[in-house]
Protein 1
Amino acid sequence: MKDRKPWQNLRFRLVAWYSLLAGLSMLVSDGFMYLRFRQTLFDQIDNALEVTAIQALKNLDDEVDILMFDPNQETPVLSSLLNDAGVEIYLLGQDGSVKEHFGNSLVLPTQTSLKSGFKTHVTENGRWRLYTQEILSHQARPPGWLTVARSLQPVDATLQNVLNQHILKIPLLLGIVGLGGFLMANRALKPIGQITHMAEQVRVSGDLTQRIHYQSTTDDELARLARMFDEMLDSLQATFEQEKRFTAYVSHELRTPLTALKGRLHLALSQPRSAESYREALQAIEQDVDWLIQLSRDLLLLARLEQHHQDIHVEPVDLSDLLTAIAEQIQPLADLQHLQFSTHIPPNLQMQGSPDHLIRLFLNLLDNAVKYTPAPGRISLTASTQGHGIQVSISDTGIGIAPEHVPHLFERFYRAEKSRSRTIGGTGLGLAIAQEIAHRHQGAIAVQSQPGQNTTFTVTFP
Ligand code: ADP
């Protein structure tokens, strides 16, 4: 954790990306503005050069057969141009030879092939913008070329100035953007830091009671992440505590029959006995062992059902046939207990399920109904369709369940009436198994009961 490189740090990467993008967009927008500005300055100079050329051409002397400006003409424009230190005017012959030159800063290179238009010329004392225009012969005046030039030094200085300002501005702005990005990233990633810290604490201490309790005015992704983390810890803690309780219950449940077993063995072996009394002792021991086998089977089944990633084998099931077969199995038990057993099972109730598990579910519920209904009571098994689903109810007129027990009935090893339930002989896992099977079929079990009067368990499948 300690030797992480800076780029492995999300905060660093966010700031780096943020600054890079901000820098790039500044470069693009500033570059675009700089080029536009530069173009505008050049356009202005070119326009001014064209105007100067027009004015200068007006001052040509048409009366003489050499190329020159009219010495008699009042040339306010020319003279003002001459006063302007940045402008030079050349009158050139057709062969490029200099006929007249106003100005003293630019030495025009000897040019053999002249052509009209603008060009930029680099000299020792800076860059110059030149505009050349052809002079046609007129009256006595011979043809030739006019070149007006203007120093680009002021423009270059301005452009350099602007460039310098931008170059200075970019690191400053990048600094502000980077700092802002860092503060924002810090703020945004704070819950992640809290979650990491919390996860580390939970890992080190194994204490599942800790929570982040992240407070945020906005329900953003990170607030949701923090909340999900708290909820995950809630369910982990619940599962962990349930497991702890379960282990305690299992050891308790095992201890009672094993102690009884041990007692019986001890008693049987304490003195020589008749074959008859050994048989009686062994029969009692067999009952205890049967009970232990039943408990371990129930535990194994429950453990398998709770492994949700292990699919149970599902196939088309005719629930009507299945319930009828179960009813036939329960009938002798009900007769034995002097209970009236009635069924109402419509034909052709079809569903997808695991027949073995469904048999177990309904047998558990019917077995309870028989166990907890004293004679002369009534038990009924009713099935019906509910929309697209199927509902199966098992009712009895037995001892009922007090309201305070109802929320816990489906917990493992929960018994409403501890002494009675244990003597009747259940492992206390019947309802937990039934509920788990219903859940694995996307179904649910509900219970309604009036103590001392009746109980109805209703199983619904979607
Ligand atoms: P057990 O093996 O003790 O029957 P179950 O999980 O099947 O365990 O049932 C849990 C408890 O629910 C029972 O101990 C009993 O107190 C109560 N119970 C279940 N079914 C009925 C019923 N039909 N009438 C009254 N009490 C019931």
Protein 2
Amino acid sequence: MNKIAIYPGTFDPITYGHVDIIQRAAAIFDRVIVAVATNSQKRPLFTVAERMDMIRHVVGDIPHLEIDQIEGLLVDYAVERGAHAVIRGLRAVSDFEFELQMALVNRKLNEKLITVFLMPHEKYSYLNSSIVKELAQFGGNIECFVPKYVQEKIKEKMRNHERH
Ligand code: ADP
């Protein structure tokens, strides 16, 4: 049976931490769907199309990987896509409480859907998209956090923001 996993998130933008998790997930599941949240409460810097484009550029060559967008409830999307698991990254203890709550709520809504937590390489354990954006805003070097293509897109975005 084809085991399908969904890796949901805001990906604003994708970082090496996300890439690490995607590679690990791809090594265990037959198909991994990276699902970009359209209704994120985080007021993303990038549009959904831009976030999907960056993901495609960075991990598009991984076999059996799909990039999609997700609007409603994760459990509904999982049923619609015939997925067995939800992938989440666990960086530090600070992630745990929120992730546990989400995993348990999702299990309550659909007990067949299994949340799988993956730990990134420790060099990415302090990394998130917000810190990358903050650094970039003040001209910090972000090359060890995001791939070249993403670096360029961030710079472009910052330049456009300055202009408006
Ligand atoms: P969300 O809005 O769901 O927090 P993110 O794009 O920030 O979306 O993260 C999506 C998933 O990727 C979450 O499970 C998060 O823990 C994980 N993640 C983000 N950054 C890293 C990282 N540096 N290492 C491992 N997992 C990460």
